[in-house]
Amino acid sequence: MGGAFIKGLHQSGGYSVTACDVDEAVLETISPYCDRTTTELSVAAESEVVVLALKPDLVGAILSDLELTADQTLLSIAAGVSTELLESKTEATVVRIMPNLAAEYGMMAAAVTESTVTDEIRAILDAVGEFVEVSESKMDIATAVNGSGPAFVFYLINAMAEAGVDGGLSPEDARTLAAQTFKGAAETVLQSDRSIEDLIDAVCSPKGTTIEGMDVLWDSDVEAEVGEAVAAAEERSKELAQDAADE
């Protein structure tokens, strides 16, 4: 996620990025998208905004060595780690976000804590996609919907592509058609004032092909299964929060 965020900021052209990691191989991979790379935390700590893109169990150890001032902002991508916990370990202004991998292409969907977000952070998030401001209590469900969501969508795209291959399309053509269909449908939802139910109706001509397929979906458990996947991801986010608090 950290690499995707860096690539998105690089693509936007408006930011100077320093990447810090103990793994020099990781730094080599992302160096084309950074102004500089370093293995020294003290160098990263010089930035106005420090992005914490770590596994939750590493946050405490890193923050104990990361000396930030009240004039700086700590932007945390660590899943499940609460703003309250982060604030107890740094003097910096803490803003918690949950982005997703599409940040790499400037098409990120992100949630950010409404009580702490600043205009500076809003500008950064605008540069790599769309975001919504939510309460701290909603960050776990946001993590499930937009943070874990891309994997769920990839799964569905693959299912549609495989159906196309089974029907005789080449794998390449089926992948393109399925992926672009999801992309176009998503943009339609974002651009239209109509409800998703109304958009479905707009595609479903009476006695046409779409309504035949929708009848299968309406009679299935797909909606419930997707809901269970989101709920499982949300529960794991809550578990990570508890694990971080117990560290």
Automatic annotation (TrEMBL):
InterPro entries named among the record's database cross-references: 6-PGluconate_DH-like_C_sf, NAD(P)-bd_dom_sf, P5C_Rdtase_cat_N, P5CR_dimer, Pyrroline-COOH_reductase
Pathway linked to the protein: Amino-acid biosynthesis; L-proline biosynthesis; L-proline from L-glutamate 5-semialdehyde: step 1/1
Subcellular location per the Swiss-Prot or TrEMBL entry: Cytoplasm
Binding site for NADP(+): 53-56
Keyword tRNA-binding: no
EC number annotated for this UniProt entry: 1.5.1.2
Keyword Transport (UniProt): no
A single Gene Ontology CC term: cytoplasm
Domain Pyrroline-5-carboxylate reductase dimerisation positions: 136-240
Domain Pyrroline-5-carboxylate reductase catalytic N-terminal span(s) in chain numbering: 1-80
Domain of life: Archaea
First-level EC class: oxidoreductase
Gene Ontology biological process terms from the UniProt entry: L-proline biosynthetic process
Main location, first listed in the record: cytoplasm
Molecular function terms, GO-annotated: pyrroline-5-carboxylate reductase activity
Catalytic activity: L-proline + NADP(+) = (S)-1-pyrroline-5-carboxylate + NADPH + 2 H(+); L-proline + NAD(+) = (S)-1-pyrroline-5-carboxylate + NADH + 2 H(+)
Keyword set, alphabetical order: Amino-acid biosynthesis, Cytoplasm, NADP, Oxidoreductase, Proline biosynthesis
Assigned protein family: Belongs to the pyrroline-5-carboxylate reductase family.
NCBIfam families xref list: proC
Function, in words: Catalyzes the reduction of 1-pyrroline-5-carboxylate (PCA) to L-proline.
Name of the protein in question: Pyrroline-5-carboxylate reductase
Gene name of the record: proC
